[in-house]
Structures are given as C-alpha cells and as structure tokens.
Amino acid sequence: MSEFLLLGRFTKYLEVERNASPKTVEAYQRDIKQFLHFCGNEWNASPEELPYDRIDRLAIRLWLGSLMSSKPAKSTLARKTASVRSFLKFAYKRGLIHHNPAHLLMNPKKEHRLPKTVRPEELGLMMETVETDEPSGKRDLAVLELLYSTGMRLAELVGLNTADLDLDRKRVKVYGKGARERIIPFGAPAAAALRNYLADRLLLVSRKTGTDDHLALFLTDSGKRVYPRLIQRKVSLYLSRVSEVSQKSPHVLRHSFATHLLDRGAGIRVIKELLGHSDLAATQIYTGTSVEHLRKVYRTAHPRAETPETE
Asked: What dihedral angle (degrees, nearest 10) is formed by the CA atoms of 272, 190, 180, 156?
C-alpha cells in the first residue's frame, strides 16, 4: 500500500471517527509524512514501495534522534511521537501491518511552563482604553470583554453566530475541540458591551457580506466574519497599552480568566468545564500559577515569611 493511500485512510479516521480538528489533522499529516520520508531515505525506497513491516522501534528512535539535532521544543517532540504512534496503531488494528512497533513507545515529557496572565486591574484599564464612538470600537470592546469573561478559545469566538448568544440569561453557546458544545456564562460588563455592539452591528454589513457573514456575531470593518489574525492583532494592540506581559494574545486572556477564578476560590473542576477541557490534567496547569500567587501574598502578608538575615 502506498504512503498516500495509507495516510489518506488514517486522515479520514481522524476526521470521521476521532472528530479531530483541522489543525490537529494537518499537524499529524505533516509529522507522519516526515517520518515516512525518513524511513524511505534510510531504505532507499520510494513512497509507493515503502516496506511498512520493516518499521521497528529502532527506525522510530533513529527518526526521533534525527529530530533532536534541530533542538525542537519538548511539546513538538511529544506531538510528533504521538502522531506516529497513533498512525502505526491504526495501521496495525486494521491489518495493514503485521506488528505495531510503537506499542511500548513512551511520549517524552512536556515542559510545564506557567501560563502568562495579566492582572485584573490591568484588564480593567485595558477595557477603558477602547474608544467606542464607532461600530468597530464597540466590536473590539465586546470581543475583549467576551474573551476575558468566558475564557473561550480564539477559534470558538471566531465561529460564534448571533444565534449562539443569549443576552437575557448572560450566556453563550460555543463549539469547542471535537465539535463539543458547551454553554458559558458571562458577566454584566460583557453583556453591556455586547448590547452596545449589536445596536450598531448592521452598520458593518456591506456588499461583501455573504450568507455566513450575516450569521456571524462579530464582523470585520468590511462586513465579513472576523478571522483569527484580526482578533490576535486587536488583542495585542490593546494589551500592549496596559501590560508588559511577554505574550499578548487571546490565549493570555483565557489564561487570565482561569487563573483569576482559581485565585478567588473557584473549584478546578468548574474551571475545567468552563474552559472545555476534556481532561482535568489540562486544567491543573493553572494551579501552579495560583500557588505562585499565594506564595507572593504570603511573603508580603505574613510577619515571619522571610528569614531574617544573619550577620
């Protein structure tokens, strides 16, 4: 079976059975092609003649070893390992290869970096810097308020339709990874910003506005559905006015949302549901940020927090 046919069947499996996101499918395809081309070069075989049953743990380790020369991030290496392991497991379970060489392959440990966050007072100041005389400014404020008030992902915000919004109950329906639907509440400032924006939303409609654009909650200045790069630029612009945080992205607002909830006593399982995480382990990274916050409070508040200097 050729590389392209087997990879095509695996891609369909990811899309249909695993309901993987387009971004995940694209990354897996890229990783697997890289691995298969490495094997082909090692064995001097074309993609159509690649002997899949010759793939063993040594071949996988040689490939991973070749990747190390470029010093990839641990998260990248972990994803590539997972891609190949999933691909070979798929091929073995469907009888396309006679053994699974990746059966005992372990994922390298990922780096656990604490997520970047912005202080609540800085975010409050950021909202005040948005000029709302024009419809585009009202849209920007509504976007910022909704991102911080809900912690939703960038892709979830871009995909929102007006029908997904329930202003009376202050909640919004989003479709997360794997097309999983969830309902997220939002606060009064976000509701006020959304009402203000919706009052002028039709002023952004133009001849370029298509059928899908008419459904979209957030429109560009030319009447099209907003796109990820636009939102990234807007968030970066407004965050740069109030914060020195190294990362200025929509994900920083998501991190801030989760961390601020945790700092104020919200349970980790509640935050997991709000963020749309399928695994509690993905949410627990925020506990590290909260512990650091508690440590700082302790150092400044407790009379014997610091060890006296010895002469």
From this structure: -110
Reported as a single tens digit per residue, the pLDDT across 117-155 is 899 999 999 999 999 999 999 999 999 999 999 999 999
CA 288 to chain centre: 19
Known catalytic membership, residue 33: no
pLDDT digits (tens, 9 = 90+) for 261-279: 888 888 888 888 888 887 7
Q: Which among 33, 177, 182, 293 is annotated as catalytic?
A: 177
Query: Cα 270 from chain centroid?
Result: 19
Which of the pair, 103 or 270, is modelled with greater confidence?
Answer: 270
Domains and their CATH numbers in the chain: 3-93 (1.10.150), 120-299 (1.10.443.10)
Q: Of residues 37, 182, 251, 293, which has the active-site annotation?
A: 251
- Reading the block at residue 273, the tokens are 């549901």
Q: The tokens of 92 are what? A: 């073995």
Nearest of 27, 44, 26 to residue 78 by alpha carbon? 27
- pTM for the whole structure: 0.63
Q: Which of 123, 137, 159 is nearest to 252 (CA)?
A: 123
Contacts of range 53-61, beta carbons closer than 8 Å, 24 or more positions apart = 53/97, 53/98, 53/99, 55/88, 55/97, 55/101, 56/101, 57/101, 57/102, 57/104, 57/105, 59/101, 60/35, 60/84, 60/101, 60/102, 60/105
Question: Is 251 among the catalytic positions?
Answer: yes
Q: Is 254 a catalytic residue?
A: yes
For residue 234, name the pLDDT band (cuts at 50, 70, 90).
Answer: very high
**Residue of 85, 153, 248, 260 marked active site:** 153
**Catalytic residue (one of 80, 254, 255, 260):** 254
Greater pLDDT, 213 or 288: 213
